[in-house]
Amino acid sequence: MFGSLELTRTDPAHIGTAPLSGKDNVGKVDILIGAEDEKKTKFQNYLVDAISALNEQQIDVNHIQEQVITDPDSVDIHDVTIAMAKAQMSLSLAQTVIERVVQGWNEISTSR
Question: Using CA atoms, how far apart are residues 81 and 93, in angstroms rounded to an integer?
């Protein structure tokens, strides 16, 4: 009645030039099921990267604080304050996320 759904890519920078259609999704379910391990690995990498970035912020603040103590003229006090505020905000955000994840896990485990 309405014909087939067919979309075309309008940006030449996108990969491929063939038209997009609903028929392309046939057989992709098997690929998605096999990709669960890949998703877990990506999520694990995301968490490790986030924790590493948080750790780097804390280390940078420590270095700036040491520099203020040893050579106060080389560092602007505003930069120290901003770095400390960023590190504190990142740490409190991480603590909040961890608390929410643990709370969610506890709710899931008690609902069984």
Answer: 18
Kindly state the tokens that stand for 1: 């009645």
SS3 for 20?
strand
H or E element, residue 23:
none
pLDDT tens-digit readout, 15-46 = 555 554 444 444 444 455 556 666 667 888 88
pTM of this prediction?
0.56
Bridge partners (DSSP) of residue 21 are 6
* Structure letter (DSSP) for residue 6: E
Q: What are phi and psi of 12, to 5 degrees?
A: -65, -15
14, 17, 65, 79 from 74: Cα distances, Å: 48, 55, 12, 11
